Structure formats: C-alpha cells, structure tokens
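ARCHIVE CARD
Drawer: 12
Card no.: 0347
Subject: one protein chain, sequence and derived structure
Cross-reference: see card 0346
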Amino acid sequence: MPDNKKRSEGYGREATRELVAKLLKTSVPTMLVSLLAALATTSILLSESNRTQLSIWCSVVVLISVVRLFQVWRWRNLLSPENAIQIARLYTLGAFIAGLSWSFILYFYSPDDAQLSQLMVLVVLTCLPPAGLAANTHWLPVFYAFSFPLWVASIAWVILFGEGKQFQLFIITFAYISLIIAVAFRTGETLKQLIYEAYRNKELVREVREANDKLNLLAYEDPLTRLANRRQFEENAEEAMKLLKDMRISEIVLLMIDVDNFKHINDRLGHDAGDQLLKRISSRMMEMSRHSEVVVQGQMNTARIGGDEFAVMYCIDKKSAHSSIDKLAQRVLNALSEAIDFEDEVFWPSVSIGVTRAPTHATDFAHLRRHADEAMYQAKKEGGNRVCIYQQSSS
C-alpha cells in the first residue's frame, strides 16, 4: 500500500506538471491576442476619452502582458514536477493583476459617448472571461483570478449605469457569470481527469513491463547465481549453432563444469556454505570470461544448468589448435580452483571440466552437450580437479 500511494503521488505530480505545461503553452496566443485587443480598444475609445489617461491604461495593460509573456517563456524552461504548483500560483497572481488592469476600462465608459465606444467597453467586460476559457481552464484558479475583477466591474456597471433596471440586469449578469463558472469548472475537471488518467495508464503500462521483465528473469535466470539458467543456455547454444552453420563463426568450444564432492561440502559446511561456493564460482566464471570470446547475450556467457553443474560456451573466430583449447580450459580451471574463505576456514574448491568442440566433435548441440558430459565424467574418474577434452575414440 505505501508503494502504491507513493506511485500515485508520483504520477499525480507528473499530471500536475502536464496541466501547468499546457496552461503555459496555450496562454501565449491568448496574451498576444489580448495585446491586439488592448490596442484596438484604445484606438476606438481615443476620440471619446482622455488621451493621457487612456494611454496610461493601455501602456499598463501592454506592459503587464509583455512581462507575463517573458515569465511564461522562462517558466516553460524551468518547469518540473517539483515546482509546477509554485509556478501555477505565480501565474495565477499574474492573471489576477492582468484581469484587474483590464477591469479599469470601466473608468472610460460614459452613456454620453458614441454607441461604438460604449459597446467596446461592454464587450471587453463580458467577452474577456469566456475568451480565456480555452487557455486558463487547465488550471482553474488562473481562470477565476483573471475573471473576478472583470465580473466585479460588470456588476459595478449594472449599479452605476443600470438606469432603474439594476435588478433585471443584475439577474442577467449573475446568470451569465454562473454559466461561465459552470462551464469552466466542468472543462477544467475534464482536462485534469484526462491528463491524470493518461499518466495513470502510463504508470500501469510501466508496471506491466516491469512485471514482464521479472517474469523473464525468472524464466531465463538462475535465482541463486544470477547466471543464465538451462533454458537460456540452450536457446543461446542453438543460436550459436546457427551462426556456425551459416559460417559466421568458425568454431564453438563448450565447457561443462561440475563441482567435485559438492554433497560432501554441503554435509560438512552446511547448505549455506554450498550456496556461497556456487555463487563465488559463478562470479569467477563471469570475471574471467572475455567479451571477445562470448557467444550471444553479452555477459550472459555462463550458465548454471544443474545443482552444481555449469556451462561456458565460447565462439572462436579462427581455427584453433588443441593446445589453444587446453589453455582456455586450464585458465578456467585455475580461476575456479583458487582458495575461498568460509568464515574461519579456507577452502580450496575442485572442479572437473569436460571440453568439446563443434564442428570437430559434433554438428548439433545435443551431441555436443553429450560429448562434453562424457569428457567431464572422464575427468571425475581420473580424480577430478582437471580438464578432459573429448576424444572421438572414447565414444
């Protein structure tokens, strides 16, 4: 449950960041349009209002819009899940200041002005809030902060210029504002839910992939040693045989490795010590394997295919003499036979190694594996802790 809560909070933060990112993105064209609207409004009211005061109002609106555009550009570069809410709050404050500056257009309204001038003021007061719906409903506080001063100015117009019909006009204004609020709320919640669901689905897909990866590890990896298991090894071996058949490699060397007297180790030192021995042998096999000699799967060059039985497969690029194979197998034997400390006791492990080659000894993996096992058992018969290379005459 704590993990699920933590993950839910994680993609909740991502969804918030996405909402704020969309808010910042869609706000740019809205602000540019507001700049043009401020200039158009000023040009229409210029003949009816005080030029100085109108110029000051227009300059303030334009300056606020320019500053907000600069901040949006800056915030879009800095936005992250951690600071998304803080940026949204600062943007909300800027929206309130912008809405407040626009609301002062009521100051330039007069019943004595030309109808076009009066209409322009009313259009600004009534149309700016819904015009910002598309951009600002990604973060509802921004929409409310921008619209509230304009709604207050609209109510003030009803009170000041209602001419005896204030009550009727107030009802109409109230209904209009309520409708806009309802639409904004529904749109904002829908957008938030869509983005939240998208990130939750994304998280679910990631969790499914993680589960599949874990299942693949269980299917192809030995849980004790973290080496490839028998299934993975056999698939790798078949791929290697195909490479050999297609002459993309010239030879395959297979080493079958069995720990000598492993049952005695378990009986004497305990199963935990036996597991530690298998882990250390596995680690040594991975360390001494050269990447240039490995066939398929990168570092998955060795496999645990039984309780105390391992396999190593090498790809040989050039035809190798038996002496080269001897050196290769001896290098493995020396690495695996070095001393291991078990608590207060030093233990010298012993392994038997059977070696076979393809296509010299076999042209398919089943026979190659069988011959390697025969060579390994021959090494055990000879006392263990040695390498035995398969000989055709022994079959």
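Annotation on reverse: The two ends are 61 Å apart (CA to CA). Residues 166-220 form the longest helix (55 residues).
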